[in-house]
Design brief:
Layout: H1 4-25, H2 31-53, H3 62-83, H4 88-95, H5 98-109, H6 116-135, H7 141-164, H8 170-185, H9 199-223, H10 226-233, H11 235-248, H12 254-276
Helix pairs in contact: 1-9, 1-10, 1-11, 2-3, 2-8, 2-9, 3-7, 3-8, 4-11, 5-7, 6-12
């Protein structure tokens, strides 16, 4: 039976896939302007709501909140650069290495254990990146470097969220992230331009879909355990491959696609290893 939590995670991943497709559609804009579009759409809704509900804007750990926000902006901005350069499915696949880097950082900084089977899953996923990069000539070295920076940043964000999750309201964390993204993106206004005609639909849509994805993702994880929901998060890649094919004409030969499958296989093996040990 499809639980409400699973339904929410499926809807959230679909929203994020649409958001990423819209970001790619806006490839004629400077990536930091796209970051601004993405962040502003969430900030203008979340900030007034927090004031209305009297949720702390400053938070209890402003230094850590700013660090999480800064790393999140780095991850988002490098990812938006990459999806303007390489196929959508490839960018999302490699960025899925984020949980691996997160687990390694949690191992060193939070003293969380990593099971032997998890190390194997990490090796499988990294092998997938090597195969994908080696056989897909559309992935240049700069793009690979940037998407790996994005993935490492995602891992750092996961680690910081583990620390902040019990100390801060989730909206305070999101608000810091979106507010920081808006402020940082303003430093690049000399490279911006005014959207025209149908571009406004993509500009508005990227903010709305990003907000919807965040809300439903948060609600999903409040209803179900991480171990139940984690496999469904990878539906975002399925959506991305479909959207990339129909809207951007992106296709894959069998060798690069094997690389994608190895990355996803490694992630599922990681989930299985954590579930078998009773972890989340």
């Amino acid at each position: 039976m499809l639980t409400k939590g699973v339904a929410y995670i499926l809807f959230a991943t679909f929203s994020f896939a649409i958001m990423n497709a819209l970001a790619k559609e806006l490839s004629s804009f400077h990536p930091m302007q796209v970051v601004f579009f993405r962040a502003l759409g969430s900030f203008v809704f979340i900030f007034p709501y927090m004031l209305f509900r009297k949720i702390s804007i400053r938070g209890n750990n402003p230094g850590m909140l700013l660090l999480r926000a800064a790393i999140g902006v780095l991850s988002l901005s490098t990812f938006f650069v990459v999806i303007q350069r390489i196929p959508l499915g490839s960018a999302i696949s490699i960025r899925y290495l984020g949980p691996i880097f997160g687990a390694i950082m949690a191992f060193y900084f939070l003293k969380e254990k990593i099971k032997p089977l998890q190390w194997l899953s990490f090796a499988v996923a990294f092998a997938g990146v090597i195969v994908l990069k080696g056989f897909d000539i559309r992935i240049d070295t700069l793009s690979l470097t940037l998407v790996l920076i994005s993935a490492v940043s995602v891992g750092a964000v996961f680690t910081l969220l583990r620390y902040l999750g019990t100390r801060e309201h989730y909206l305070t964390i999101i608000n810091y992230f979106m507010g920081t993204a808006v402020l940082v993106s303003l430093f690049f206004t000399t490279n911006w331009r005014i959207p025209v005609a149908e571009e406004w639909w993509s500009v508005i849509g990227i903010g709305i879909t990003g907000l919807i994805g965040q809300v439903f993702m948060t609600r999903a994880f409040s209803m179900e355990t991480t171990s139940v929901l984690a496999p469904f998060k990878y539906m975002e890649l399925v959506y991305a491959l479909i959207l990339g094919f129909f809207f951007f004409g992106e296709t894959y030969s069998w060798l690069p696609f094997t690389g994608i499958l190895l990355i996803i296989g490694g992630m599922f093996l990681n989930i299985y290893a954590k579930q078998r040990g009773g972890g989340k």
